[in-house]
């Protein structure tokens, strides 16, 4: 869009007003006169949009004289103010700026007055107004840093929400198991106490005690995890028949079978006690086995909680300095898989990681690289169909370390491949993505002196991240 008008001498009152402008007031008066003669005053009402994100783009530079402008961005959770400009600020398109459209609507928060200079004059501004141009470049750099920081924070918050939902599910399962089994254990201990007193009252010989303890240890060491459902059912039937024939039918056979007991074990026990003692003995052994199993379940569930908490701590690099240090990629990749395992299971996706042994370290900000892995793996999980496959691999390539995230999804359509790393570009539904994940991943990789590349076709997609290995001096 062009804004053509006949140039007229600058209004002295406007030039005086620009001379008091906080950002550009210090430039020579001829430069103030130059922009005053090529722009014009615009008055915006409260709520009026200066530049719309869905409009024709940023059409000029604005020197705000009074009032306040804000930019609102909707990244799926409703409009949110990203930043604001007040009287004395510069906004809009600036010399050397590559901005085309704002990430959100630029809206007047209150009645606002500004000097608006069409972008068609910016090329001449570089030549005619060197001091103004230098100020604009500094403003543009500050603005880029501000938006980059805001974008990274937004993407981190979205990632945190996704990870929190998955971790809540991951932690809920073992925590529920601990609570459930602890409640059952309380009742089981009372039953074990009863059975123990009855068993001790039998007055068995030392030899009998030794044999029973040996059989207990042998059964406890046996694994039943490799039994098929049919084999387990057959063993339960056999143990049930044995119990019925030995006056111990009150004992549930599955309590013994789950502990690794077989008919052979029971027969060995029956050989060292009398027929009148077998019922009490088996009742005690079944109760002891049930107690041991509950304690084992609690231990395994608590260990799972500990593993998840440890993975979170490693993933976020808590209690570690925010500086680049020699970093092994294997733990970070494994912890990221742990964070996203719940999402993979929800879609029945085969998610696995392969890390080459003795992989060289890289000089890295570990927490930032984990953000890269999270974005790439999460996108891959979204891309594959139910029952799909996502493979994460890491290996050496010359003096570099290469991490590949591959999936067997439908691939990235040819018409959008060139835009895949653009900020705010997303193919996901509203509320499902910010359009910043791949852009931020690319920025982080570039910060680490690496590259990220895309290879895709109708059989799947591979994102390949190449990072330089840590120098020997740093690694030592």
Structural features, described:
By secondary structure, this protein is an alpha+beta fold. It folds into three domains: 12-128, Sandwich (Jelly Rolls); 167-302, no CATH class; 322-475, Heat Shock Protein 90 (2-Layer Sandwich), CATH 3.30.565.10. It has helices spanning 12-19, 29-38, 122-128, 130-200, 206-221, 229-245, 253-257, 263-270, 278-316, 329-346, 366-383, 437-447, 472-475; strands spanning 40-44, 49-51, 60-74, 79-86, 90-92, 105-118, 325-327, 350-355, 362-364, 389-397, 400-407, 451-457, 460-468. The strands form three sheets. Strands 1, 2, 3, 4, 5 and 6 form a six-stranded antiparallel β-sheet that branches. Strands 8-10-11-13-12 form a five-stranded mixed β-sheet. Strands 7-9 form a two-stranded antiparallel ribbon. Helix 10 runs parallel beside helix 11. The longest helix has 71 residues, at 130-200. It starts with 11 loop residues before the first helix and ends with a helix. Mean pLDDT is 82; it is low at 1-5 and 430-435.
Question: Which helices and strands occur, and which strands form pairs?
Answer:
Blueprint: H1 12-19, H2 29-38, E1 40-44, E2 49-51, E3 60-74, E4 79-86, E5 90-92, E6 105-118, H3 122-128, H4 130-200, H5 206-221, H6 229-245, H7 253-257, H8 263-270, H9 278-316, E7 325-327, H10 329-346, E8 350-355, E9 362-364, H11 366-383, E10 389-397, E11 400-407, H12 437-447, E12 451-457, E13 460-468, H13 472-475
Parallel strand pairs: 8-10
Antiparallel strand pairs: 1-6, 2-6, 3-4, 3-5, 3-6, 7-9, 10-11, 11-13, 12-13
Helix pairs in contact: 1-2, 4-9, 4-10, 5-8, 9-10, 10-11, 11-12
């Amino acid at each position: 869009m062009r804004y053509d008008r006949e140039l007229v001498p600058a209004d002295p009152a406007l030039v005086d007003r620009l001379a008091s402008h906080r950002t550009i007031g210090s430039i020579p008066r001829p430069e103030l006169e130059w922009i005053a003669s090529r722009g014009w005053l615009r008055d915006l009402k409260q709520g009026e949009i200066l530049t719309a994100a869905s409009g024709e783009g940023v059409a000029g530079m604005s020197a705000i004289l009074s009032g306040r402008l804000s930019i609102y961005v909707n990244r799926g959770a409703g409009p949110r103010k990203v930043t604001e400009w007040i009287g004395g600020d510069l906004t809009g398109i600036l010399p050397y700026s590559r901005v085309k459209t704002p990430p959100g609507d630029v809206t007047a928060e209150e009645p606002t007055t500004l000097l608006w200079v069409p972008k068609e004059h910016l090329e001449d501004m570089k030549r005619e107004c060197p001091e103004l141009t230098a100020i604009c470049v500094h403003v543009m750099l500050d603005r880029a840093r501000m938006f980059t920081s805001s974008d990274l924070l937004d993407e981190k918050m979205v990632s945190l929400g996704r990870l929190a939902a998955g971790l809540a599910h991951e932690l809920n399962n073992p925590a529920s198991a601990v609570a459930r089994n602890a409640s059952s254990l309380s009742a089981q201990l009372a039953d074990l106490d009863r059975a123990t007193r009855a068993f001790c009252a039998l007055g068995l010989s030392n030899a009998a005690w030794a044999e029973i303890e040996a059989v207990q240890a042998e059964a406890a060491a046996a694994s039943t995890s490799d039994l098929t459902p049919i084999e387990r059912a057959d063993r339960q039937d056999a143990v049930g028949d044995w119990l019925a024939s030995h006056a111990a039918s009150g004992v549930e056979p599955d309590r013994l079978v789950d502990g690794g007991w077989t008919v052979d074990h029971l027969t060995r026990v029956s050989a060292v006690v009398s027929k009148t003692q077998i019922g009490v003995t088996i009742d005690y052994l079944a109760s002891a086995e049930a107690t041991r199993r509950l304690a084992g379940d609690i231990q395994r569930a608590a260990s799972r909680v500990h593993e998840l908490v440890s993975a979170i701590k490693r993933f976020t690099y808590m209690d570690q300095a925010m500086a680049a240090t020699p970093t092994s990629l294997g733990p970070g990749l494994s912890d990221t898989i742990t964070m996203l395992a719940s999402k993979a299971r929800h879609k029945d996706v085969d998610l696995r990681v392969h890390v080459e042994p003795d992989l060289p370290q890289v000089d890295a900000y570990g927490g930032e690289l984990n953000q890269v892995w999270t974005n790439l793996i999460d996108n891959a999980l979204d891309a594959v169909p139910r029952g799909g496959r996502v493979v994460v691999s890491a290996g050496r390539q010359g003096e570099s370390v290469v991490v590949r995230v591959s999936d067997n999804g439908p691939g990235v359509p040819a018409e959008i491949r060139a835009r895949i790393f653009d900020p705010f570009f997303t193919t996901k539904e509203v509320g499902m993505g910010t359009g910043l994940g791949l852009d931020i991943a690319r920025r982080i990789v570039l910060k680490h002196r690496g590259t990220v590349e895309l290879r895709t076709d109708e059989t799947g997609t591979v994102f390949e991240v190449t990072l330089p290995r840590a120098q020997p001096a740093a690694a030592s």
